Amino acid sequence: MTSKKSLFRSKEMGIFLVLIVLFIIFSIASPQFLKMKNIFNITKQIATLGICSVGFTFVLITGGIDLSLGYQISLINIVCAYLIVKLGVNWVAAILIVLLLGTLIGFINGFIITKTGVAPLIVTLSMMTILNGLSYLISKGLPIFGFPDKFSYLGQGSMGPVPVSLLFLIAIQLIGAFILNKTYFGRYFYAIGSNEEAAQLSGVNTGRTRIMVYSLCGFFTAIGAILMLSRLNSAQSATGAGFEFDVLTACVLGGVSSSGGKGTMLGALIGVLIVGVLDNGLLLMNVSEYIQLVIKGAILLVAVIYDTMSKTNSEKIKRMKAINADNA
Fold first, then answer.
1. Burial letters for 38-73: b for 16+ Cβ neighbours within 10 Å, e otherwise?
2. Which phi and psi angles does 263 have, rounded to 5°?
3. Structural domains of the chain, ranges and CATH numbers in brackets
4. How far apart (Å, rounded) are the C-alpha atoms in residues 61 and 188?
5. Bridge partners of 145?
6. Dist CA 2 CA 7 (whole Å)
7. pTM of the model
8. What tens digit of pLDDT does each residue of 22-53 get?
9. How many CA atoms lie within 13 A of 44 on its CB side?
10. Is the alpha carbon torsion for 134, 138, 143, 148 positive or negative?
C-alpha cells in the first residue's frame, strides 16, 4: 500500500513539473525571463504571497477560509504608513503595533466563527467589508508615502545578491513547516479538517485551536503586508484588493484541499512559485491584465474541481474497501 507521505511526494512532484514546464515556456517566449535580475524580481514579488500562504494553509487545512486577507493587508499597510509618516512613530514600533493588529484581526475572525457557528465564508466576507471601510476612513482614499530608508530596505534591499524579502520568505516557510509537521498543533489542524467531531472526541480543543489558526493567519498576513509596503514604498487602501484569491489559488494549486484535512507547506510554496512565475511571464509577454485575470480564475476553478473530485473518489474507494472488508 502506498504511504501517505509517498502520496504527498508524488503530488508535489507533479506540481513541481508544472512549474518546470512554465519556466521552459516563458524562457523560450521571453529572453528576459531567465536573467538573474528577473529571477530575483520574482522572489521579491512573491514574498508577500508566500508568507501569507503559510497562515492561509493552516486555515484551509482546518476546513476554513479567510476572505478578509486582502483587506487585512490594505488596513495594515495604511495603519503602518500612518503611524510612521503622519504620527512620526519609530518604524520598528510601528511594525510591532501592526503585527499585533494583524493577530487581533485573525483572533476576532476565529473567535466569531468558533463561538457563533457562522460559516467562515460569511464571517470573513463581512470582515473584509469592515476592513475595507476602515482603511479608506484612515487614508481618506489618498496614498501615504515617505518612509525611512531602513524600513524600505526590508522589501527592497539585498544581502549580497540575495533579496532580504527572500530570506524572510524562507524563514517564515520553515517556521510554518515546523508548526505543521513537528508540533501537536499541526496534527490538530489536520484532525479538525478531516473530521472535527472525531477530533473533539479525541480530546482536541477544536474551538481554541481554530481561534489560534486564524490568529496565526492574521500574524503571518501582517508580516507579508509589511514587506509589501516596504517594497512598494506607498500605502493605498486598494493595495490588497483581490489578493486573497491569489493566495487561495496558490494554496489549492499546491495541493492544499479547499475542504480541509490535506496539504503540505512544500506544496503550497510550489503553488506560490507557479503563481509568481505565471504573473511575471505573462507580464514579460505583454499579456493584457484582464486576460491574466481570466487565466488565474480558470486555474483556480480547475484546481478546486480537481481537489473536489479527488476527495470524492477517495471517499468512494474507502467505502468500497469498508464494504469488501465487511463481506470478507
1. eebebbbbbbbbbbbbbbbbbbbbbbbbbbbbbbbb
2. 140, 155
3. 36-309 (1.10.3470)
4. 10
5. 234
6. 7
7. 0.89
8. 899 999 988 889 888 899 889 988 999 999 99
9. 21
10. negative
Nearest 10 degrees: Cα torsion 117, 191, 310, 243: 60
Total residues found in the chain within this entry? 328
| Beta partners for residue 235, in sequence order | 144
What value does the mean pLDDT take over residues 238-253?
Answer: 92
Q: Which three cell numbers stand for residue 244?
A: 486573497
Q: Cell numbers 514604498 label which residue?
A: 233
What string of H, E and C letters represents the secondary structure of 83-137? HHHHCCCCHHHHHHHHHHHHHHHHHHHHHHHHHHCCCHHHHHHHHHHHHHHHHHH
pLDDT tens for each residue of 193-229? 999 999 999 999 999 999 999 999 999 999 999 999 9
Contact 168, 50 (CB under 8 A): no
Bridge partners, 163 (sequence order): 158
Q: How far is Cα 240 from Cα 247, in angstroms, rounded to an integer? A: 11
Query: Grid coordinates in use for 277?
Result: 512565475
The amino acid that residue 280 corresponds to is: N
Instruction: Look at residue 2 in the predicted model and tell me its pLDDT.
Output: 38
Q: Which of 39, 35, 36, 71 is nearest to 52 (CA)?
A: 71
